[in-house]
Protein 1
Amino acid sequence: MEDTRSPSLSPRIFSEKEVSKHCTKDSCWVLLGTRVYDVTGFLRMHPGGEALILRRSGKDISEELDGPPHRHSDNARRWMEQYYIGEIDRDSTDEDTETLRQRKKTTEDITEEDGSSDINKCAKVDEGKDLVDWRKPLAWQVGNLGEKYDTWVHQPVDRPIRLFESDFFEANTKTSWYMVPIVWLPLVVYLSWYCYTLLAQERTRVYFTSDYSILIHKYTFPFLFMFGMFLWSFVEYCIHRFVFHLRPPAHNYYLITLHFLLHGQHHKSPFDGSRLVFPPSLAAIVIGGFYLVLTKIFPEGLGTSMFVGGLYGYVVYDMIHYYLHYGSPQKGSYLYGLKAYHVKHHFEHQRAGFGISTTFWDHPFKTVIPKQTF
């Protein structure tokens, strides 16, 4: 695994006693051999839960990375290097450690100066060796990566991404999670009432022939609503697999750029909280298309009833997706399994595990993430 530190900087030195003090949610350190990592900021994101790391705080987790229950991928190990803060000297006392620190004081002062910008505080990326310049917006750089793009975009980092130079365009690519229910749930409530009253008029029929039709009763609305949610789960799977994970041609600058804007940036920075849900303006395009298709194929009452269920399914999907990245579900729960499944998709199995709110469609399409065996 490539060391992401600059070779010119000397590591900080810690004693065993000092490392052992960092065993709480507010400050959690772990070891890999003699290397010390401050994983405090990763606790909530860890798919196994906070407690799993806290129980091992101050200890060497080398064996746990190899499993069981889970063998961590190369991406996970690379991700770990972003939290590296120094080395442990197991034979030193606190006084010895303080002496070593005084010797390295000049180097550490330089390190603090280099890390004064927001970019350097977020993650340790070797800007001299990385394929893009992180000090500049990435949107117009990634298209130049060519055949290296697919490998680069699937090596995640823990840092925010800036896409555009313009503050206006940049702001429109970010959305707080609560905007999704604020914008769409009122529409779900209104359309649910509208569909029920429309079906209650007993004028909505499905015609099989000119002489034979079936009346769609108002009491069928809950079933149509649920079917719409089920239909959305299929649309969700198809968009994620066939649009977001369509591998752009290595020679096409524009398709690479488009892929990065749609989904690549999420895989490069999977815990950028401002880009975990769809901006309402972009989502409206997909939602509008979903509505037009259903109302053209079916009578208004029937098509709109399925649409509103699908719209609610979309809201649930976006909320689950955000929670899978930032939530801490209880071990053994449905969301706990989904979180572990989705994190594997990001870190190891980018060509499988396309279901987010459910893994149902991964089974018939044979894209289930395989279980590890030891």
Protein 2
Amino acid sequence: MESDKNRLNLKREVGIIGAVSFIAGTMMGSGIFISPQYVLSTIGSPGASLIIWTCCGLVAMLGGLCYAELGTVIPESGAEFIYILRTVGKGVAFMFVFSFIIVMRPASATGIALSFAEYVVAPFYNGCTPPQLVLKCIAAGAIVVLAIVNCLSVRLATLIQVVSMVVKMLALAVIILGGVVMLFQGNTRSFDNSFEGTNVGVSSIGIAFYQGLWSYDGWNTLNYLTEELKHPEVNLPRAVVIAISLVTGLYLLVNVSYLTVMTPKELMSSNAVAVTWGNKVLGSWGWIMSVAAALSAFGSLNGTFFSGGRVCFVAAREGHMPDILAMAHVRRLTPSPALIFTTIVSLLVLIPGDFQSIVNYFSFTAWFFYAITLSGLIYLKIKKPELPRPYKVPIILPILVLIAAIFLVLAPIVDNPQIEYLYVSLFIVSGVIIYIPVIHYKLCPGLLTKLTVFLQLFLEVAPAEKNL
């Protein structure tokens, strides 16, 4: 408990190692073990797929650096929500938090949990597709377990993140070394005419970026928990550079290894790329890759829960969600009501979810709000140059990432319009319909107050102060 006024606040317990682990550990989740075949099948050639992976890493790095400046100018947790609230206004901020809590974060958690389940069951369903019911039950179990861990202890959640990052780095190192050995043995057939068959359509490039950037999702993780980061003005930009550089290098080497061991056709037809790679290279020890990939996804899911709960918590603290979600446990100092709420929504999204559609619609929504957030940074740099900036980037960087974000939002719609994108857009705008009566005019029934008091006593939570 750290407060001059006898109030609760979240403690600064995340140092530089934990910070790098949260970014890299959240990024290096299921994506690199699942997305390569989707990137390759969408873009059409091995050479073009490697360019897509490189460009995705560059976009993530530039976005991370822009967010590092935002995190030091506005040193509050909540990432996009708090930045949009401070630069654009309450209405758009509520549209974001409504979309984030109902679609973006649950979709991200569900996609990672389904990937975790795929790798857990892969050794038991070798050569055939596992039943969806089995996958969803295992995914739901993982979501519940990590929700409990995050409710119990920040340190325990951070420890899981560090340990899982070590495991996934070892797994990726094995894949890279195996690829190097196969490369020296002359297995280069996948790189002959490596750009043959490239799909150069705007929609193909956009969807390939969606699938690739899914593997880089998490580059903004630290901005969700700025108030729990030690010395954010130093550790935030430092952790971004270290983690994203490390992840980009590993991803490129791993993709080269996949293409060295498998033909493009084999890679595209695989349900679990790392397991297929393990069976071909490690033989009877191929199951190790399944275990490592499952643990990797588990760590990524942990980071997703840790950061996602903080957005819900901060939104409630700003009056955009019920008061109970802005409270922390009186002894454990974790935002348990917000974590429980996000867990329930994730479990509901899991019921109808399938991986590829989850990635596309999550990415569309996410990059729409990234564009708004980056516009806010450009506004602050032009209109509020006097604000203290412990870390800053040239204005050209947010402009470049903004252009990339606009392309990622518009490309799939312009080149290959689908009715689903209209549904997602309508859902985002529908946040305004809820905002006007419930938040702006505060038409909240008295029942909500009674429910808040009951849950506050039941969950042993109390209002938490900002930790600035």
Protein 3
Amino acid sequence: MELYYLPTSPPCRAVLMAAKAVGVDLKKTILNSLEGETLRPEFVKINPQHIIPTLVDNGFAVWESRAILIYLVEKYAKDDSLYPTDPQQKAVINQRLYFDMGTLTQSFAEYYYPQWLCRKPADPEAFKKIDLAFFYLNSFLENQEYVAGDHLTIADIAILATVSSFIVAGIDITKYSNVEKWYANAQKTTPGWDENCEGLLLLKEWIDKKINLSN
């Protein structure tokens, strides 16, 4: 099973953690989308949308990280705890996954990418979206240890990859007490956390380089 990925990418790191959680080994190929490497003809043949992460399992290709998380669990997990078959439990997990994609990750991109990639000044209005996203996440975690129920699921894995990237970028989560508590626990309970940390270190180096270039 081959994964095309970039270790600095939160969605890619979510897939790494999910693979560890279900016990599958990945042949990893780094493609730097910022350098145009995903436009290589051989990769476009695999994924015409040419985005990462992309997983290839015995000739079957799937992309979009949250789709990959579901695929890995449904095909390879020993039980359904990471993505329960109960419709209501699954609906909550799906909601959290869509929240991660459309709200939390989107706020990260809208605030940080213009600064890092285009050297634009920080936009206070864009930062308000980050604060609102964490407010929502904090409310999801009221009186519970995990984001979608009473145990670890792929929703935690996806959001952990994102939140850890926010922290590396400089976000202080201490004012979101439920998120802070969840984050401390998630580091201990999520398989593959060490590999996520390796990617975070690379992300920090990349961020520092971009900041120095803009000064």
